[in-house]
Amino acid sequence: MSKAQQPAKIDLSNLKSGGFIKERGKDLFTVRLRVPGGRMSVPRLKKIAEVAEKYGGEFVHLSVRQSIELININFKDFDVVVEELGEATQKVASCGARVRVPVACGGCEYNPNGLVDTQKSALEVDEKLFGTATGHHKFKVAFAGCPFDCPKSATNDVGFQGAIYPQLDKDACISCGLCAKNCVPKAITMGEDNKPVFDAERCIWCGDCVKVCPTSAWSEKRRGYTVRIGGKWGRNPLVGTLFATFLPEERVVDFISTVLEWYKEKAEALGRIRLGDVIIKEGPQALLDHLRQQFPDNTVTATIPPQVIETQVGIRS
Predict the structure, then answer these.
(1) In 3-state terms, what secondary structure has residue 171?
(2) Burial bucket for residue 127 (CB in 10 Å: 0-12, 13-18, 19+)
(3) pTM (2 d.p.)
(4) Which ranges of 207-313 would DSSP assign to H, the alpha helix?
(5) How far is CA 304 from CA 51, 179, 243, 307, in A?
(6) Burial of 268: CB neighbours in 10 Å, binned 0-12, 13-18, 19+
(7) Residues 226, 163: contact at Cβ < 8 Å?
(8) Measuring CA to CA, which residue among 199, 225, 38 is closest to residue 114?
(9) Per-residue pLDDT averaged across 104-127, rounded?
(10) pLDDT digits (tens, 9 = 90+) for 91-103
(11) Shortest CA distance to 259 belongs to which of 309, 298, 211?
């Protein structure tokens, strides 16, 4: 067989980094699609169904990170699958040691609990940072619009959670008590003068008092993202811890870039290691000092390392 007739060799590492994941079956792959924030237009969804029916198996899979995965795709069909998906501007995701597709809740467009526009943030991060090589390990980002935190942001390398810090205009208060009745953490109680009493230490920045107040006596003093860093799931889970508060939405990309800069430098020569483990090794103050140079108004004074979750068998190294 001449060299020209020899079948091309498949580099599985390169394919996986591009979102093509080898399956058990011969020549079959899962193709992971890029769906930032889990948002999918109806026309694009129809095209994906058409391609899946034409080239894939009997079903698709919805990953836990909001991606659609086409199952049982033969590698010989890669080019045509990518081309036909492209007709609806659908792109393939990536795997490997790079910034992954960000996940997000519905945000504030239609969700009454949403405090910030998580969808806008996810799209911006996807556009500017998706696929950025870390040189060490995967790097996951999640956006939650409120303290309900449906995307479980603290289990990501960098997790953002919408927040509102409330303030009260007592003169505008009509003493209806709705704020106190709706304050789940009991940060608001009614005082002897029948006006709200605010306990800042109990407040979780959910903004419910602002939403229910009929006279706008409660309003937002600050709005932005609470940021937790160093989380991950998998074989040795970590929960990320608090590094910044009320980060402006328009500074999300700069913030992640600053974290990535520190991660790349501190993980040098450490091999395949996640951000949370680097923070534990270096100490959280090292990352706080780095962040404070660019975000002095948002970086917290002190924090604790990412927290080890001993849910797995075996001794953690």
Answers:
(1) helix
(2) exposed
(3) 0.92
(4) 208-212, 252-266, 275-282, 284-294
(5) 47, 32, 9, 8
(6) exposed
(7) yes
(8) 225
(9) 95
(10) 998 888 999 999 9
(11) 298
